[in-house]
Amino acid sequence: MSEIVIAQNLLLKYLNYHCNWVQCNFATARPAQFREQQLVAMLKAFGIVPSLDK
Q: Rounded to whole angstroms, what are the CA distances from 33 to 16, 28, 47?
């Protein structure tokens, strides 16, 4: 599998996860930073360590 396909699959999984998360937590919506931390944790679980240095 190419890296592009893997990245697309990860993005689709994240979007599904993200949309479910937003729907389930709409009443207690948290800041974007929290969702960003969840994405980073998920990517790390797949063995990808993104750099979010600002």
A: 18, 14, 21
Give the Cα separation of 29 and 36 in Å (integer): 13
Query: Is residue 50 assigned to a domain?
Result: no
Q: How far is 23 from 18, CA to CA, in rounded Å?
A: 9
Collapsing DSSP states into helix, strand and coil, what is residue 3? helix
Q: What range defines the domain where residue 30 resides?
A: 3-45
Among left, alpha and beta (phi > 0; psi -120 to 50; other), residue 30 is: beta
> Reduced to 3 states, what is the DSSP secondary structure of residue 37?
helix
pLDDT tens readout for residues 4-54: 777 877 877 776 666 565 555 544 555 555 667 777 777 778 776 655 554
